[in-house]
């Protein structure tokens, strides 16, 4: 009587972690599959891997990335390894979170290097789907939209960006079905948006935030740092410098956001070749501006160094500073 | 190092189907809890029920409703019973799918009668949350939006309606985590929108569509039929009459949509006290208008009988008519 949708998806493959199997697609792509890390390029493959982990009673952690991995990503992988039994890392440069004038086409792609790094970390599953696998219709027609938060900070500078982020993260949560997912505090606005989505839509996944990992001179690690020439690389330190200046004033007792912002902006005034996008002090959960810091606040900065847009941030806490 | 979100939700209760437990909230609401059907009013209660079913290897079916149950709903429950081991029915009059001038406040609510009907059908779990449980912030801040489809048919007449539907259905899928969910073909546009959402966002749930259930005289069953006075009840037959007229012409060989539409509209011309909202012939999956029926097409109609908006539809298939 009732008809099951023709859209019903069936599992096409199962495998055991104890006995890694070659997958048709990964093999046909000429990807090397070593012992220990399964490489999946289709939703059904990675679903089978997740099912297998769950069937063995293992806790599954997901680290969603866009590849071009650095120590920041690897810190997420290590956190996932600590808290979970099986770690899945996704590598997908998600087109729907890039604006039409942004760096989608030049975003660094280095799959073989990434694969080796993840293998060394003991990652069990690497999910590296094609754009066609994720968006068979050529793009998204269903969007997950977090109102309000998505228009603040980077969302204001990059219209539509967070809509792309929440949509791909929702899809990855449904495909991989992790118990926990790991995100960097470096993308503080993204983190707030994803936490709000998880709460609002009752996703059953634990969101874990990991601290910013920095280069020895303090620059926050980012795949986009690769765009910087040596001169720009030097100038890029202004981001962290501005945050530190504001932090110093905060530690000296200043609680008025406008004054802390001024002190940060002054640091940018000394680096006229860097274009400040925003320097804001906001509530870390709602991303709304705060006037006076009474408890916790996020200082977030974004700036263009040459044509490269970089972000950084720092959380201020009254009482612990 | 990494901090788990404070939003992380923990399970607060477990129970066994074999030994129904009293839930604090349901009991405090004065709801009678009989053997066999567990009544849950919180997300964590119904999640515990789903977990328990899964732990016992049972297939879980969800029938989302807004209550005011009739034989149409019960046909969904019976289909779920046939295809699944444990059936959860949700009753929630979802405010976010009603427009500001629509019938949210007067929508029929008859919990005790619904409860008895579901108990008789052998339903295992009844999920009847409050608005505050589902929208603790007072309304939705995260939306699931299916572009395109959501603006067609009822979506055009009821702006924002399908955004509310997809958002609540996504939430229910995350809260209950069913293997299959059952919807009525009566809401054909809703069905297309939900199927598109499930496909686009990789939800792991099978969508099952069940045929329209009709009164003896042909009127499609609807909770809103209760609004009709006897005179309106008679006039309401024009909806099915118009569909049948078009179907007759289709069976006689007519394939041009515009001509079939005219024949349906003519039936409305004979019932001037009923206000036609739309009479359309569309692709059942995309809801886009078709000019000529080559395979399958949906004829869908919506009309105001007094102040009551009713819908009905019929699928035409070349070769099987």
For the largest sheet of chain A, list the strands in their spatial order.
Answer: 2-5-4-3-7-8
CATH superfamily of the largest domain in chain A: HUPs
What is the average of the pLDDT values of chain A? 91
- CATH architecture designation of the largest domain in chain A: 3-Layer(aba) Sandwich
Can you tag this structure with a few keywords?
321 residues; homodimer; 11 helices; 35% helix; 6-stranded parallel beta sheet
What does this structure look like?
The structure is a homodimer of 321-residue chains. By secondary structure, chain A is an alpha/beta fold. Chain A has two domains: 24-210, HUPs (Rossmann fold), CATH 3.40.50; 223-317, Pantoate--beta-alanine Ligase, Chain: A,domain 2. Chain A is built from eleven helices and eleven strands. Chain A has helices at 24-28, 43-55, 71-83, 111-120, 131-134, 154-157, 161-176, 188-200, 230-235, 237-251, 257-269; strands spanning 3-4, 38-40, 60-65, 86-91, 125-127, 142-146, 180-184, 206-210, 274-282, 296-305, 308-317. In chain A, strands 2-5-4-3-7-8 form a six-stranded parallel sheet, with helices on both faces. In chain A, strands 9-10-11 form a three-stranded antiparallel sheet. In chain A, α8 links the parallel β7 and β8. Chain A is globular. The termini of chain A are far apart. At the A-B interface, β1, α3, β6, α7 and α8 of A face β1, α3, β6, α7 and α8 of B.
